[in-house]
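To whoever is on call:

I kicked off a structure prediction for a single chain this morning and the downstream step that reads the tokens threw a length-mismatch warning. I double-checked the sequence; it's 185 residues and nothing unusual in it as far as I can see. Pasting both halves so you can look.
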Amino acid sequence: MIKELMNDTKDRMKSSINSLENGLATVRTGRASPVLVEQLMVNYYDQLTPLNQLATIGVPEPRMITIKPFDNNTIGEIEKSIMASELGLTPTNDGKIIRLSIPPLTEDRRKDLTKVVSQRVEEARVSVRNARRDAQNDMREFQRENLISEDELEHGQKLLQELTDQFVNDINELGEDKKEEVMHV
């Protein structure tokens, strides 16, 4: 019973890490990458749709992203989404292709981006802690219903804390690596 609970909790914690990795991939580091805009949500006929489902995204040169919409009528909405995002990029278009020029990051912008990274890392930590809290509550409930003994409860809580510590350390490492990448000139 505790083993199943631990596996479920581990899956929840892994999904927190996956979410963090996806979130950190969208933080700009001064180099062009399709990942920066792929998951940008665009209002497409009153439905929020990821940009990668509406356009072909390319990187023709190290500091340029091109976005070629499948439907040219979506160019305006795509531009609005880019402007509203936290990327800090200004799109230009020729009626068929949107171009995003990636300027070198200023020191102030790098510091702002490290704050964004820190915020996302903290959100992931909170998510892992919430998974731990839910698992602890479940274990206490099992013990109250006499499904597990007090020793099993203590052992389960110890294993749960070790699992939580492991995932929090992984989250911290991801955050530090991304901050280093952002601050690298």
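Update from on-call: the warning came from a stale cache, not from the record. Cleared it. Sanity check on the structure: Strands lie at 41-44, 47-50, 55-61, 64-69, 91-93, 98-101.
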